[in-house]
Amino acid sequence: MAFATSLIPGLDEIVRGDDPNRRADAARRIAELFLAGAANFKAEHVEFFDGILIGLVPRTEPIVRADIAERLSSVVNAPRNLIVQLAREDEIVIAGPLLRRSPVIDEQVLIEIASEKGQEHLLAMTERPTLTSGVTDVMVRRGDREVVRRTAGNAGAAFSSSGYSTLIKCAGQDGALTLTIGQREDLSDDHLKELLAGSIDAVRRRLLDVAKPARQSAIRQAMGDISGLMLPVEGRRNFEPAQLAILALHTSGRLNESALIEFAKEHQYEESIAALSMMSGVKIATLDRLISGGDRYDPILIVSKVIGLEWATVRALILLRLGPNRMASPADIEGARVNFARLMPSTAERVVNFWKARQAA
What is the DSSP letter of 117? Predict the structure, then answer.
């Protein structure tokens, strides 16, 4: 294998030297030499190239490293040490191609990168043809909405039981994610029921519409196992138009606190409750009963704390509950503000989980 040195005279000097142009030229030529014979190289040959390239490529300009990373990203026997080092780079233009498809990167390295790097690196990993449950555990825990959605939509991704639980928790505030998870063929019956229990009626009906025929039977069975899940929201109010409107907002990514506070200020009760349901995972019937059925505003404080709403939105929801023709005293509003500030998120979450358990029982 001495031909690499003979092909590039003074290679040792280039590796040790500081001339970026000579180093870049040498790195490209050796990478091309490797690519030309990769299909026939034995392990010791690959190791030889790895030893040379690891001393050259990381010290080249980003554009050179990106080019080499792209060209090596699909090679099944690419130099491992070099690939791993480039995949750990902060520049996504370098790390991205390798994270998307390099077969050389093993599970442990992917877990380490997923644990340390930002959303761009996680998003690149969602495109890998396969993902182990160990990797997806980290991705769904650390990923933003787009990362979680794309990970759930990767047919080659595997999920642990805890990974699915995390996905389902995220889906409580994301109708599009619910639709994606619900169509996965590896979703267990128990997880399917958990997913459906935390979603609103409109999302469940949509899932039944878009799922493959073979999956529809499991969805119908899960719906049947959840007591009252398919019943319309009882009471004098008609929530169905509001459910559909909120689902459309959520699917388009426009359901947020700003939209909610506008509904509350305009005294649009059904839309406000449907939005709270989508954002918290608590059924509309449960929220409607809790919020409108008594004289206290505690349920509003509790669900708002779990969602992470600002006080201005909470205040608007309290005034919505009273109705346009009733006034709240300044003392009552101040008392609500103090109680909301004192309410611990962990306490609120326990109460909301209790609501969800009761509604799914």
Answer: S
